[in-house]
Amino acid sequence: MTTSKLKINLYGEAWKLNQLLLTKDQKIKFEVIAQRMKQPLEEVIIDPYFYYLLKSKAILSDEDLAVNCIEGLLNTSKNQIEIWYRNQKVQKLKCNDLKEELVLFPLHNTTIQKMKPCLEKGLYV
């Protein structure tokens, strides 16, 4: 029995914004280590030596921290989108191909949303 798989690959330049979700205890512990390193918390959070000083088996790098993540593909000429179905490439697109105002008639049912993330007070990487 074969399964029908749809796969979408995004290639090119992208952006990613992570909001760190720290508990009060974690924040206090992180600030103590940052003071010991004589740097602000915003800078030491991306320093690998910080995680060595943290000495936590659960948090070995910034990738192990709990985060709220917002990410997307930039609209540049180098970026492309590939759509695969049943291990065959169905279509290759540029970001501008999805905009309906640039074509005579719509090729895809798309909704393009310009998003302003609601950035509340916190620590962002």
- Tally of contiguous helical segments: 3
Shape: elongated
Radius of gyration: 21 Å
Task: Enumerate the spans where pLDDT stays under 50 for 5 or more consecutive residues.
Answer: none
Largest sheet: 3 strands, antiparallel
Mean pLDDT: 83
Task: Please estimate the helix content.
Answer: 10-25%
How are the strands of the largest sheet arranged? 1-4-5
Q: Give the termini distance in whole angstroms.
A: 44 Å
Quick take:
The protein is an alpha+beta fold and 125 residues long. It has helices at 24-36, 41-44, 48-54, and strands spanning 6-11, 14-20, 67-73, 80-85, 88-93.
Notable characteristics:
single chain, alpha+beta, 125 residues, 3-stranded antiparallel β-sheet, 3 helices, two-stranded antiparallel sheet
Could you explain how this protein is built, in words?
It contains three helices and five strands; from the N terminus they run ββαααβββ. With 125 residues, it is of the alpha+beta class. The longest helix has 13 residues, at 24-36.
How are the SSEs placed, and which strands pair?
Layout: E1 6-11, E2 14-20, H1 24-36, H2 41-44, H3 48-54, E3 67-73, E4 80-85, E5 88-93
Antiparallel strand pairs: 1-4, 2-3, 4-5
